[in-house]
Structure formats: structure tokens, C-alpha cells
Fold this sequence. Notes:
Two copies of one chain form a homodimer.
Chain A: H1 14-33, E1 37-38, E2 44-46, H2 47-54, E3 64-66, E4 72-75, H3 80-89, E5 98-102, E6 105-107, E7 119-128, H4 133-149, E8 157-163, H5 164-173, H6 181-190, H7 196-205, H8 210-220, H9 225-231, H10 238-254, E9 261-263, E10 277-283, E11 292-296, H11 300-303, E12 311-317, H12 318-327, E13 340-346, H13 352-364, E14 369-371, H14 378-387, E15 390-399, E16 407-414, E17 420-425, H15 426-431
Parallel strand pairs in A: 1-5, 8-9, 13-14, 13-15
Antiparallel strand pairs in A: 2-4, 3-4, 5-7, 6-7, 7-12, 8-10, 10-11, 11-12, 15-16, 16-17
Helix pairs in contact in A: 1-4, 4-10, 5-8
Amino acid sequence: MKFKAVKGTRDFYPDVMRLRNYIVDAWRRVSLRNGFEEYDAPIFEYLDLFTIKSGDEIAEQLFHFTDRGGRRLAIRPEITPSLARMVAAKINTLPRPIKWFSVPRLCRAENPQKGRLREFFQWNVDIIGVDGIQADVECIFTAVDFLREVKLTADDACVRIGCRPLTVASLEMAGMPEDKIEAALALLDKRPKVTAEVFIKLATAAGLDEKQLAAACALQDCKSIKEIQELMDGRENIAGILDDLRELMKRLEQMGIGDYCQLDMSIVRGLAYYTGVVYEVFDRKQSLRAVAGGGRYDKLLEIVGGPAASATGFGMGDVVLGILLDEKGKLPEDVLAGMLDFFVIDGEDGTFEKVLEVVAALRTRGYAADYSFKRQNIGKQMREANRRGARLAMIIKKEQQGDQPEEFTASLKNLLTGEQRDGISITDFLNQPTLIP
Amino acid sequence: MKFKAVKGTRDFYPDVMRLRNYIVDAWRRVSLRNGFEEYDAPIFEYLDLFTIKSGDEIAEQLFHFTDRGGRRLAIRPEITPSLARMVAAKINTLPRPIKWFSVPRLCRAENPQKGRLREFFQWNVDIIGVDGIQADVECIFTAVDFLREVKLTADDACVRIGCRPLTVASLEMAGMPEDKIEAALALLDKRPKVTAEVFIKLATAAGLDEKQLAAACALQDCKSIKEIQELMDGRENIAGILDDLRELMKRLEQMGIGDYCQLDMSIVRGLAYYTGVVYEVFDRKQSLRAVAGGGRYDKLLEIVGGPAASATGFGMGDVVLGILLDEKGKLPEDVLAGMLDFFVIDGEDGTFEKVLEVVAALRTRGYAADYSFKRQNIGKQMREANRRGARLAMIIKKEQQGDQPEEFTASLKNLLTGEQRDGISITDFLNQPTLIP
């Protein structure tokens, strides 16, 4: 019997794992320097936690099961419901501000496609309890700080920024009944991804009035705040929203990331719970799915049984990002190879015990050190040193002078430059860290 | 409706997450410096992968489910079967040696107890394809290198080393039929944890002959290789096994970890697949469950459909380890607090935009920098800086000289020493990294 990984999941062999770690380490580094603290939640939760927000039909897209105690559980498809649950449980005692990030492993029972797998990792960055656009600015800055960290320029990727309340206002202006608005938003979210024909078909299928939708479509096509202002002229309560949007764009500019950011009213986000600014990160050519998406979601804590609390944040998956980095040639070379500081070689019979002692001492001092499991000639061990990506090869030899006790010496060869030093006393080497190049 | 985490799982709030990261980061650091490469597998696998090795009854201890495609899947309770599957699939093309580690998230559908949860993290360290005791030595050294890394001394914890083939030989010597040996090993594994009375009851329940068991019990009580030799005298094929065991203990001594290691023939390990040296890491007083356990398992790859290949390794969970570190007071203080390099404060009206610019520049240079979301007086912002654990507070002010354009300057206060420098030009500060203390 031969076993395989389940379709849509990945085996992370060391070469693939190095790429995952390159991404995850950068996510964590950027989060911490932007003042976010890491959290995590269990990999499975009560199924209801996911259905309460998105409806029972979401269960189809989840891996769910009943445990021996009869609990209906599900592997998490996203971490935001867990975040809302955790914050709601301790809302009065958590130190503020609540600037949290996480890198959860998530699973969705979907059909695998390019950029969409059944198991993936997603960077989540959220700020809870802060009203006002500065919290949104923080999240967007953090996303762009990451793009820069992995060498994606403003020519490679950008943040497209929309505004949910404006889209809702345009639908209301056109007379869309309130109970149709959620369906209309879900449909508008799909609009940039389908042809005009398909869009109309979907609208009809969803029972939406085409003329009412048209107003929102006109908003989606606006390219500037001025255009929006002209289109929405006369509508009450729009001025404040527009002022905020203008200020948001200005602050992104002040923080030096204006070139990565652009207004794009066609960004709506599919999920029902967004209430403010929304955004998605795309490759500039938009040849791939969104790399990241997020926005303000001020009602979610209440939905999961917590108090009213404002919230904003985004998620970025590892799958599309990995494709983009690969396509743009942005994966650094040293991600593609393992690294050892030292490879220690027994240069003659009777020196293997000394090899073990040296390797142990080097590791204990924090150096990555290894040796061959095979007792073989120096040439073969040297080849293993090279294959393992070692920086330095250390060849241990014995020296006998007269009737003095046996002494061990080493030759140290830099495998990058070829430079070599001989006759190094092992005792000195281990006692004087400055001898280590 | 209020949601909670499922019983036996943990919410990793930032303070708890820091502890998890402290442990996981040390696991990874120690693995890499010992020459191991990281891998991972999917969180769920075909259920059969787990039952083929351990029998159908193991399914009761797993979270398992059937997906929409009718596949019977399970969340992994251990990663070794996935490791065996992955290595078996590429045995002929993987670079040697196969020295791999992983830090999987694992789930078991057990009743939670002290040191045993339904979701946990486990460090796994394995060497595949290397016969001979040096591979076992490498794994044990790596385990101890970690203990030292987290400041657990030989007085805090130790590795107890047993030998499965000797235990099997002692059972065979006493006439135990071959088909009873697996049950006998499982029972002997429990012996140190139960009273003599309970042991006899369990033996009767398992249909095992008490006198046949007694031979293995006598072996379990041996304290040295000499005692084993005397007990097993005359038995064929024992000499080679004893030579290996002696050499193993000698090499652990040579690598400087003899004080952490002791022979203990009562270590048998419960799982059926061990074939050689076995060991467990315990707190010295043995007041807790085992912190880690492992050994040689040369047949597992064949069981999951791969070729014959020798294998050895261990697993160390985060739960018992966390309890031990806490009990011994070995958790470093800075794990208990977040850390920021800079907290930037707007010292007067009209400086907030400059705060954003400075924060953005600091973060982009890799510093952890943050600021208050609230526009409030310096005292309150300073309190936030302290609460956030910032190393430096930077207060931005405006300076107007005659009709020159407005200039921004900063005071930089070291919050640890109280030392303060004033009148720093923001432009200079950002252009000269040496000014950053």
C-alpha cells in the first residue's frame, strides 16, 4: 500500500520548507517592528463559530466533524472568528492598543486551483478597539512594509483601496432595498473578475435590479475622490466619509508608501462583515488572485457574542504570494540552500572521537556544525561538506612530537574563498572564539 | 451566544504566545546548529496512514472525518507516519544524510490531563538511512543541547536510555511466545508508572504469564551494562548489542553530555515500532510525565509502503516542557514582556505627521517602532511608551528660527537608564544610523 498526501495539501520537503520559512519569518519580523504582538488560537473550533457569521452553507467549505463527546467541530478556514472570540472574552482586561498578528494554518474543503489550496498559511494583522482611519493606515503600512521587505517594488504589487460605506450609499441612492444589499455587495465583489455578460447573468440569478446595480457600478469606475464627489453629489453623510478617505490617502503618502497605494472603488470584498475602508493587494498586472485583502469590520465582535468594538485588519496567504515571488525572481538564493558554519572531518584514523568533541563544542557555542556519518577519506568528506553548504571545513589530524602526549591539530579551509590555515591547535581553537573566522 | 475554545485546546494570547515562541524558536535554533533541516507535512492525512501502523483502535484517539469526496481523513496525532510516507516517496533522490526536524501541531481526541492536551506542539528530530549508533548519539545530543539551551541542567532533567532488543531477548529467554511480545512490551512500558499490584492485574488481563514477564522485569532493574551482562549470560547475539550500548554511552560522554544521560532498562516505549535503543527525557525527580521520548524504528518505512530503511529519532512536546520550565523558574524575563526599540511621541500640535514619517523610516530600517493612536499630552504618551516596553522614547518638537522654514527636532530618552539627549535634528537622525543608540 502506497500513501500520498491528500489532494490540495502540500508536503514541505526541506527545500519547500525553506521557502515557507522565508515568508513566515518575514511576516513575523515585519509585524513585530510595526508594533504588533503575536497570538494564535486552536486549529479547530466549534462549528457554530464559523456558521454564525457566514451562514450554514459555509459548513460545506469546511472540514467539520463530530467528536466522541458529540461536539460539532471544524478545522478553521480563517482565524478572524477566533480572534473576535478571544478578544470578546477579555475585552476589559487586555492591554491596549490591541495590535495583534498571527500566522495561522488554515484549511478549506474547496477544489484546489492555481493559488488556492485546501491547506495554507495566512498572515493576519488586526487592530481592535481603535476608531478612526489611523488604524487602517497602520495595517496598510504594515502590508506594504512586508512587500518591501521581500523586495516587491511598487511596480510589482500595489494596494487597491475601496470604501464599503460609499458602495452601500450608492446602492441605497439607487433604491436598492436593504435586504438585497448584502447580495449586491457579494456580486459587486465579483464584477472585476467576470465579463459584463456573466455579471448580468449573476445579477438576474440573484434577483437584483440591474438599474439599481448600475449606480454602484458607476461608483466602482471612479478613479479619484473628486469623481466620487461629483457622482455622489447631494447625498447626505458622504462628506465625512470622503474626508476620511482623503486623509487616509494623505497619511499613506506621508509614511512614504504612496506609490504602492491607489484608490479603486471596485474593491468591495466578498464577506458580509466589512463596514469601512476595504483593500486588496494585487500584482500590478493583476494576472494572479489577490495576494492579500482586508478592511474595517466594526461589528464582528458583537456577532460572536462580544461587546461592540471597532476592528480593522487584513489577511495575506502564502500560496499566491509564493507564486508572485517566484514569477518576479524575488526569492533570495540562500533560501534555496541549507547552511552550516562548520563541517568537521576526521583526517586520519583515531581522530573521530576528537571530531565529536569539536562538533559538540561548536554547537554548544551556537555554531551550526556537522560531520559525516561515514568514516571515509578526506576527499569524500570534503565533497559532503560542499554538498551540505558548509562555510568552513575543519580537518582534524594527530601530531606526535617525541614522547610528548599525542596532540590534535586542525586545518581550517574556507570553502567559499579556498583560503586555508593549518596547524591550528584544537585546544586553542576551542578556548579562543576569536580564532573562528 | 458566547463562544469558548474547545476543551483541551489553548488560546494563545500574546503573553502565552511569547512562551510558545520561546520554546519553538529554541527548538529550531538547536536543530539547525545540529545539522538538521526543517520539514513539515499536512495537518490532515488519510486515516489509514495512522491505523496501518497502530491498528484501527487508534481511530478512537484521533479527530477523524469524511470529506465531501468520501475520503476518510484524520488530523495528525503524530508526524512520524507522514515523515515515513514522505521519505518513502523520494527515498532514491533525497540528499543524504536525511537529518530532518519538524515542529508539528498535533491533535489527539483524549481526555485532557496535566501535561496532556488535545492540541499541542511537538519537536520531532529524526535521522533516516543511517545504521549504527552514531545516529542515535546525534539525536540524544540534540535533545540535550536543547535542554542546555533553555538552561535546564543535569540536575533538572536527564535522558534515560533503554534498549528494546535486550528487553525482547529477555522475554524470549523466559519462553514468552512471539505473538505475546508486543503486548508484553506495552505492559512493561507501563511498569514504572504503576504499583506492583496493578502491574500484576494488568498482566493477568492481557493474558501474560507472570513468570515469563519476571525475566524482563529483572532486566528492567539492571543499573549497569555489567549487571545486564551477568543477567543475560549465555544468551546468543547479546554481545553485539551490549557492545553497541557501551559505545553509545561512551560517545555521549565524549560529546560532553554524560552527566545528562543514564542507562535505564525500564525504558521500553509503548509504540510497537521501536527496534533498537529507546530513551525518554524526564525531570530528575520524575514528578512529571516524560518531556521527550524516542529511539530507533527501523521498520516503519516498510510498513507505510516504502523500502527498508533504518530510522531513529525522538519527539518532545511543549506541554510538559512548559510546566517543567515554569516549575524550575527557567523562563527568561524578557519572554514575559513585549519589546519595542522606539516609541515616538508628538510633543506639540502639528508634529503628528512628522511622527508618522519617523516611525515609517525606523520600521523600514528594521527597528520596532510604534506611537500612540491617541493625540494626548506627553506624560500620557510616555506612560504608554513604558507600558509597551519601549527601550527609547523619542519626542518630536517644532523649532522656528526667525523666518527660516519650520524645523523638527527630537529629544531621545533611554527608558532603561533615564539618559536623555535633546535638540537632535530629525533629518540628521534619519540620515545617520550611528545616531541611533
